[in-house]
Amino acid sequence: MVFFxxxxxxxxxxxxxxxxxxxxxxxxxxxxxxxxxLPLVASMLFVLHFVYLAKEPKVIDREEAxxxxxxxxxxxxxxLDFIQExxxxxxxxxxxxxxxxxxxxxxxxxxxxxxxxxAAAQLQLAESLAKGEVGIDSHAMSFSTFVNEIANAxxxxxxxxxxxxRLAMLLVEQMESIGQEMQGVILLLDEIHSITxxxxxxxxxxxxxxxxxxxxxxxxxxxxxxxRHLSGRTSSFSDEIRNLINRVNGSVEHAEGLINxxxxxxxxxxxxAKQRLDDTSSRIRVMDDMMAESISRLRHGVGLxxxxxxxxxxxxxxxxxxxxxxxxxxxxxxxxxEMMELTSNKQQQQGQWEVRASARLAELQISLSNNPVAQxxxxxxxxxxx
Amino acid sequence: xxKKVLTVDDSASIRQMVTFTLKSAGYEVVExxxxxxxxxxxxxxxxxLILTDQNMPGMDGLNxxxxxxxxxxYGTTPILxxxxxxxxxxxxxxxxxGATGWLVKPFDPxxxxxxxxxxxx
Amino acid sequence: MxxxxxxxxxxxxxxVLVGQFDFNLHKDFRLASQELLxxxxxxxxxxxxxxxxxLDSSALGMLLLLKERATSQKKSMSLxxxxxxxxxxxEIACFNKMFTIK
Lengths: 386, 121, 102
What we know:
The complex is a heterotrimer of chains A (386), B (121) and C (102). With 386 residues, chain A is mainly alpha-helical. Chain A has eight helices and one strand. Chain B has 121 residues and is an alpha/beta fold. Chain B has a single domain, classed as Response regulator (Rossmann fold). The longest helix of chain B is centred in the first third of the chain and has 13 residues. Chain B starts with a strand and ends with a helix. Strand 1 of chain A pairs antiparallel with strand 5 of chain B.
């Protein structure tokens, strides 16, 4: 049984009193007094001891236990063990949380970086494709340029065709004037024909007159005969010229036929081709519009991606802050553990105990008062430039 | 020539986020895991900007800044503090130590890029 | 195929074409145009396409020649009453830039 402080006082007083009585009353009364007083005092002490125990509450709160010179009862051993067990488990769990978060976040951050870069690259590629910068041919031509080239080529073709026809029609006119000249020649030939006829007639008449003149007219008759021959030759030349002219006319007609082919190009075919070009052009314009819309949607997507990336980068920094907060909790746990140990060792360190305990308590309070992480949410922090 | 940035932080995720943000914008980034490592890297190389955390094992951020400012090469280099600490007291300590700016975590990547661009281009 | 009809009203001389305007018409076209070209009263020559279904290139050639001659005589020229197909052909040949088309 442990004797409390005040119990010792009572015992001391009791013994003093008895000693005084013995001295005053002599040896006989002293022996009687002692044999009566001792059991009396002992039983008083026993009774008071148990009464006191029933009244005083058990001391669990260590702060009350540390308060000055209060006579507090010790905490029951199993409660202390429970607390210490919980604290060491908490420390283990804190450490595990740290490891888990670190591990998971590292993987998360890596995959996030990868995803983000891939997405950006894909958007870039899509934009290039839409703009037609990527193609099979390294000198990729845009559709509208191609169609324009064709339209120009067609325009040149039509121009040349029409010009050719114009020249052809001029040619035809030349052919016609040749024909007309030929007509003039034919008329002249007709004139010649009638002249040769008349000449023939005259020569005939001359021969008849010569025959009537007899011998005197014989020379004249010869001349008349020659004239008739000449006339005949002129006639046959004239006929040959007429034949030649007919052949020229024939050639001219042939030429006109050929020019007809040259000049008469079908315009309908060209018309249809132009129609098809126009259709293609307008379809290309529609395509270009769709392309422009796609590009603007892609750009919007790039903007959205950027915003999402910003949010993610900010949020992934949680690991650092959570880590620091958990470390701080760990520090608190160590603090608790230390104070618990100090409390349970108090019996061995009696006098100095309070001074050292208060000093250590003050130190712990200071070091734990500064929480490095004041943030309660993940909004971006302030920026100060000095 | 791309600008070179040194980021000093004991948290791997912070270093990774800083590297990701700055590298995407064309900066070259080197990482260090604590104050001493950061000082060593700074001396071994030449950086246009330094970003550092405050709470690190060994040499903390404020001491790193003071050490860097003593080096001739980093007398005027922009040095930014990137930390969870947000108290005015800490900020004035940072200013006194020679920090160019004080950024509180978590950082928004666009804002970080704006500040870096303003300081180094 | 009918010959083109020539009408003169004041300063305007009209050449009314009937049927297909192609190579085979060249002589008659030439004669009719000549009539208008040589008429001093005529200041504007109109070619009426109301009865013409379509043109081929020879027609275009003939029109170009007529234009040349009209211009040299300080007479103006216009093409009137053109049907859709005829208009389209004239457009492809860029005649809308050279002629007044009504």
